[in-house]
Amino acid sequence: MSSVLWAVGAIVVCGGLLYVAYAIEPHWVARDGRRFLATSELVDRHGTTVGRRREVRGRLVGDGTLVLGTRTMMRTRASVFRVRGKSPQTTRGRDQYVLEEVPPDPEGGLVILRIPRASRLVPLLDEMVGGGIASAEEA
């Protein structure tokens, strides 16, 4: 009986660790505020999530664009994006920015970049939005 309890306890602990590992969203910003590590997810033009959340490395470029790199196995795939808007919704204390690829693809999806409210990156991204808040549904 005790061996069954130990086995059930181990399964519960492993499940809890998996949940915590999935719930943690990494975030880091360089001192200059131009390089960062954040979480993003792909959505289609209707706002439906296409894939799971991914960790991305980003860099703000002087012309108002972002370069986001996503790691896949051994390679990093980098793409250029511009901030299309900021979602009025905040989930778990994170602002959500809607990005579109440059040049815009009419059939391509959008990227939701999730940044903590207290981050040094938020004022820079708000500047790129232009101060106006656009909802994800408008995007």
CATH class: Mainly Beta
For the sheet with most strands, the description reads: 6 strands, antiparallel, barrel
Structural class by secondary-structure content: alpha+beta
Number of H- or I-type helical stretches: 2
Instruction: Tell me the count of domains.
Output: 1
Strand segment count: 7
What attributes characterize this protein structure?
6-stranded antiparallel β-barrel, 2 helices, elongated, alpha+beta, disordered C terminus, single chain, PH-domain like, 139 residues, 7 strands, 22% helix
In short:
This protein is of the alpha+beta class.
Q: Can you offer a commentary on this structure?
A:
The protein is an alpha+beta fold and 139 residues long. It has a single domain (26-129), classed as PH-domain like. The protein is 22% helix and 42% strand. The chain has helices at 2-23, 121-129; strands spanning 28-29, 35-43, 54-60, 65-72, 75-91, 94-101, 110-116. A 6-stranded antiparallel barrel has the order 2-3-4-5-6-7. The longest helix has 22 residues, at 2-23. The protein is elongated and about 65 Å long. The N and C termini lie far apart (57 Å).
